[in-house]
Amino acid sequence: MRYVLKQHHMEEKRDYTDVEINFPNMRPALADHKVDLVSSILPFMYDPEMLKIARVLYEQGAEIGPSELLMWSARAPYIAAHRAALVDLMEDNLRMLRWYSDPANHQAAIAIVAKLTKQPPEALDWVFTQRDYFRGPDGAPDLKAVGANVKMEKDLGYLKSEIDVPKYADLTIAAEAVKRLGPAK
Predict the structure, then answer these.
(1) Best-predicted range by mean pLDDT among 78-87, 131-140, 176-185?
(2) Do 10 and 58 belong together in one domain?
(3) Any residues with CB less than 8 A from the CB of 93 and at least 6 apart, and which?
(4) Do 97 and 50 belong to one domain?
(5) What are all long-range contacts of 85-89, with beta carbons under 8 Å and residues at least 24 apart?
(6) 68 vs 143: CA distance, rounded Å
(7) Are both 80 and 59 inside the same structural domain?
(8) Enclosing domain of residue 31
(9) 90/102 Cα distance (integer angstroms)
(10) Cα–Cα distance between 148 and 64 in angstroms, integer?
(11) At what angle do helices 76-101 and 172-181 cross, to 10 degrees?
(12) Residue 78: pLDDT above 90?
């Protein structure tokens, strides 16, 4: 959100005050007029009570493009020592992701997620659909998006220097897992 506001010539402390609030507390803060703008994420952005009091100002993807903020990471010596187990883990993860993402399994997937999260199934119709976060079907992060996200962090002053993301990425574990399973449909 800070990056998008900066792109629209709004500066923290000059044009707005940044208040850190946990995601579950954002709707109450907005409802009580303690804040005027929140950065909502899943599942909170689909909360019916949030939808009653808020409107979308912008969507992140439309403003900054794809983001890739969460990924699995390990140091090279760890990968070398545990490569076979990591490929097995990735294969299992991709098999699970493909099952959950298959529309034929949608109701069963919702039932599992509802049980795990203790949420009503009717509040979870978005899970593992186009309304959910994108998950690369072959387990590899979008390195171009990671690079853009790192550059954004540098532009905001959170990082001192840029990072050559592909230089530090090893996508062979995901590639080996896909080779075992076959490409996603």
Answers:
(1) 78-87
(2) yes
(3) 139, 177
(4) no
(5) 86/173, 87/173, 87/176, 87/177, 87/180
(6) 8
(7) no
(8) 2-64
(9) 18
(10) 9
(11) 40
(12) yes
Say if 71 falls within a structural domain: no
Dihedral angle sign, alpha carbons of residues 36, 41, 45, 50: negative
Confidence of residue 108 (pLDDT cuts 50, 70, 90): very high
What digits encode the pLDDT tens for the residues 6-33? 989 999 999 999 999 999 999 999 999 9
> Are 136 and 86 in the same domain?
yes
For the stretch 26-64, what's the b/e string if a residue is b when 16 or more beta carbons lie within 10 angstroms of its beta carbon?
bbeebeeeebeebebeebbbbbeebeeebeeeeeeeeeb
Domain count, the chain: 2
Structure tokens at 133: 């976060």
94 and 176 within one domain: yes
CA distances from 58 to 12, 54, 55, 61, 101 (A): 18, 12, 9, 9, 27
Amino acid, single-letter form, for residue 153 = E
